[in-house]
Amino acid sequence: MAHDPLDPWPRPVSALLSLAVLALACGVPEPDGSSPIRDEPESGSGGPADDEGSTEAGASTDRPEDGTTDGGSQDETGSDETGPGSGPITEDARNYIFGHSLILHAPEANVPRWLHALSQQAGYGYGMSGQYGFADTHAADLPPDPQWGIEGVTSLWDDDDGQAFEDVDFNVVLFTEANFRQYYPPTEPDPDGILPESSVQSTTTVFDWVEAAEPGVRYVLYENWPDMSAFTSADFGATFPTEDELSAYYAYTSGEFHQWWLDYHDAMMEVRPGLDVRMIPVGPIVVELLGSILSDVPPEVLYEDDAPHGRPTLYFLAGLVTYMGMYGVEAPSDFVVPESIDARVAERYGEIVADIWAQLQQFDDGDGRSRVF
After folding, report:
1. Nearest-angstrom CA–CA distance, 307 and 58
2. How far apart are alpha carbons 179 and 223 in whole angstroms?
3. Residue 269 has pLDDT above 70, yes or no
4. Is 52 within 8 Å of 105 (Cβ atoms)?
5. In this predicted model, what pLDDT tens digit does every residue of 138-151 receive, in sequence order?
6. Contacts of 105 (CB under 8 A, 6+ apart)
7. Do the Cβ atoms of 278 and 326 come closer than 8 Å?
8. How many Cβ atoms from other residues are within 10 Å of residue 79's Cβ?
9. Which of 5, 184, 229, 313 is deepest in the core (most CB within 10 A)?
10. H-state helical runs in 92-242
11. Contact at 8 Å (CB) between 142 and 84?
12. Phi (first) and psi of residue 220, to 5 degrees
């Protein structure tokens, strides 16, 4: 029924000028004009699970498939204080996602399944619907089209039953842009004139439509991670990125790529000051973990191509960051990480949660206001 779309515009002329420009672009479309975020299966829930679904070496065999325990405890790691105050931002996230395959790639490689599992363990509610696209295609294809369905995750909207978006009572919108457009400002159209609107203009079109249909929604920009093709020659079969290649890629993720997203968020708050527009820096936080607590996790555990689509472990980490940013609380301390996730992540779960929480707490704008909460 749905697939992650091909990018509708050809390889930008400006990106062909030099390898240096290509490296800055970090993810211009492939030579055949296709997007580095490749097609997804028509089911909207991805293709067959990869081989990381098997039990990891050293993993405890009592780690359940969905990560929850029988108790359903609401305890969180660390302090009782949350980003916005002394409690969660929401206890029932009704989430519509304008996304692509860096949010939903495959049955086990996606973010919503972890939002569901973590919220269930904490005693909160989570339901979702969503669709594939980029900012320009989301804006062009309004009203929204609920394409996504994930086994085990509550689906909120079935337009086949005659429901409209405004009938569903969504309270949080997760929105992400393509990961290969960061070589020009988010406030400007692409330099080759293929896309007539900037990322900010297209995003504003979507947010205005949503606000008219469901006033008061919280809007969350999901900062993904950049295309890796400019940084490695690995084929992700026989070869994988080297340590030096990953170092350069991670530096770009936390540097110029991240700055683009900060500019994007600032621009959205400026053009729509009356909306509650937040941002979760998923990619930069994940690469910080991969350079510290999880520096011994090899790239073959994380990436399956240079788009780069991730394996389940990468989406689990992205899900942890997104959960804490969306709910405004630390992930539950008694969550049992399932066997499909690398055992090193399970062993260091508490440390990982504390590190993510600290980074989110410190993610402020120039005036000291939280960008997340």
Report:
1. 29
2. 9
3. yes
4. no
5. 999 999 999 999 99
6. 40, 46, 309, 310, 315
7. no
8. 9
9. 313
10. 112-122, 135-140, 199-213
11. no
12. -125, 115
- The amino acid present at 101, given as its one-letter code, is S
pLDDT in tens, 212-248: 999 999 999 999 999 999 999 999 999 999 999 999 9
- Residue 161: the pLDDT is 83
Per-residue pLDDT, 7: 36
Tokens 């990560």 found at: 67
Kindly list the distances between the CA atom of residue 184 and the CA atoms of 11, 134, 146, 194, in Å, as whole numbers in the listed order: 14, 16, 30, 13
Tokens coding 52: 């990381």
Q: How many residues does the chain have?
A: 373
> Residue 255 CB: number of other CB atoms within 10 A?
11
CA distance 361 to 8: 38
State the pLDDT at residue 45.
35
Q: Would you give the end-to-end CA distance of the chain in angstroms?
A: 35
The tokens of 136 are what?
Answer: 């320009």
Give the pair of three-digit tokens for residue 176. Answer: 């992400």
